């Protein structure tokens, strides 16, 4: 299986009539990396994948593989493998024939084809003797997904492209297949671009996560960087920073901002993250935090706040607690052990200062929007 060393996507633009689905998309992918395109429906991630695959022509921009432009080359000659969201299996062909179809077009010998089919099916834990004679309709959803991957891997592609491959599976199967895909990538070291709207999938599988918004890249980073250091209010909200508190800048020291809520509560917030800018005293901003960064039993070093318990919701491993503050805001806590108090009872809680991030009030305008600079997606 021939490995690539670098794939450069430069200024990719794709329009559908007057609708611009993708624009100024710049990304550099190092060989062997697992890169996830993450974002909500309609953000352009599948359009970007189809442009790389050659299934869509570019309106503008270039695709360069190991120093050579390939955007003018037809999809079937790029040597890339595509796993579609609906699997796109041949319903009238057996499992064996689904995998061997592309190999037969290469005029390989029967012995070589059988060897390659067996190898590919073994990689996804489908035994040729048990499954080779079955048709796709006789397989479970997870088995169909494995077959789709095996069919692609059998052709030994330079690059593996997966378009939301787990979205049609139930939660248990999604978790199982996520582990299988990660193990497969580790075994083959195949450069992979994976499209998903599921944050947990992207965090679990990827070396690099590319967060997209309305056709362009919002942030590129490792899963840890995207999770802990979102560069905009949009990325923070998408990554689960659902608690938002309007505050006013009251001052700053070397590592923390001092901010004041509408009710006069003083809070300390991190100033050492990628989205931080130089505000001045009196500026109105929004403080954001994840529910799991709010603790019902605050330590002395935390920001202390209080409110009234509005809702207690059991969600399996934890309780979601909605607390109404003195103003109009409602904040969410995750409590893993037990229900802290009854409804309409006061609750004192804490927020870690280094997990309270500040952004401009208008979420439609992220703090940073680097467009011209090429972003690199590499294994770190």
Task: Describe the overall structure.
With 380 residues, the protein is α+β, with helices and mostly antiparallel strands. Helices cover 23% and strands 34% of the residues. The protein folds into 2 domains: 6-233, Rossmann fold (3-Layer(aba) Sandwich), CATH 3.40.50.300; 234-360, OB fold (Dihydrolipoamide Acetyltransferase, E2P) (Beta Barrel), CATH 2.40.50. It contains 9 helices and 21 strands. A hairpin with a 5-residue loop joins strand 17 and strand 18 (330-335). It is elongated.
Structural features:
380 residues; alpha+beta; Rossmann fold; OB fold (Dihydrolipoamide Acetyltransferase, E2P); 2 domains; six-stranded mixed sheet; five-stranded mixed sheet; 9 helices; elongated
């Amino acid at each position: 299986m021939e490995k690539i060393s670098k794939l450069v996507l430069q200024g990719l633009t794709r329009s559908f009539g007057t609708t611009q689905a993708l624009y100024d998309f710049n990304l550099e992918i190092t060989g062997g990396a697992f890169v996830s395109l993450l974002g909500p429906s309609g953000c352009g991630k599948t359009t970007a994948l189809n442009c790389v695959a050659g299934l869509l022509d570019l309106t503008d921009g270039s695709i360069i593989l190991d120093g050579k432009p390939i955007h003018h080359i037809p999809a079937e000659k790029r040597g890339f493998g595509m796993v579609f969201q609906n699997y796109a299996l041949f319903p009238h062909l057996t499992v064996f024939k689904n995998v061997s179809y592309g190999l037969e077009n290469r005029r390989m010998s029967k012995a070589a084809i059988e060897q390659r089919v067996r190898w590919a099916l073994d990689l996804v834990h489908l035994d040729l003797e048990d499954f080779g004679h079955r048709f796709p309709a006789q397989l479970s959803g997870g088995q169909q997904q494995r077959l789709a991957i095996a069919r692609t891997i059998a052709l030994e592609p330079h690059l593996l492209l997966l378009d939301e491959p787990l979205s049609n599976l139930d939660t248990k199967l999604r978790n199982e297949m996520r582990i299988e895909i990660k193990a497969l990538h580790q075994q083959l070291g195949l450069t992979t671009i994976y499209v998903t709207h599921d944050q947990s999938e992207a965090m679990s599988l990827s070396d690099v996560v590319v967060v997209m918004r309305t056709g362009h890249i919002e942030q590129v980073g490792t899963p840890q960087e995207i999770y802990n250091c979102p560069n905009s209010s949009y990325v923070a909200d998408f990554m689960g920073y659902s608690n938002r508190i309007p505050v006013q800048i009251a001052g700053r020291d070397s590592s923390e901002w001092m901010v004041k809520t509408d009710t006069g509560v003083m809070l300390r917030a991190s100033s050492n993250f990628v989205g931080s800018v130089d505000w001045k005293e009196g500026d109105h901003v929004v403080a954001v935090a994840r529910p799991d960064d709010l603790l019902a039993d605050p330590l002395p070093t935390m920001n202390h706040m209080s409110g009234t318990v509005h809702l207690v919701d059991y969600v399996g491993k934890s309780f979601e607690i909605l607390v109404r503050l003195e103003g109009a805001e409602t904040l969410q806590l995750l409590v893993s052990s037990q229900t802290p108090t009854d409804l309409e009872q006061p609750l004192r809680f804490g927020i870690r200062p280094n997990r309270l991030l500040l952004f401009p009030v208008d979420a439609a305008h992220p703090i940073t929007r680097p467009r011209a600079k090429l972003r690199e997606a590499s294994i770190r």
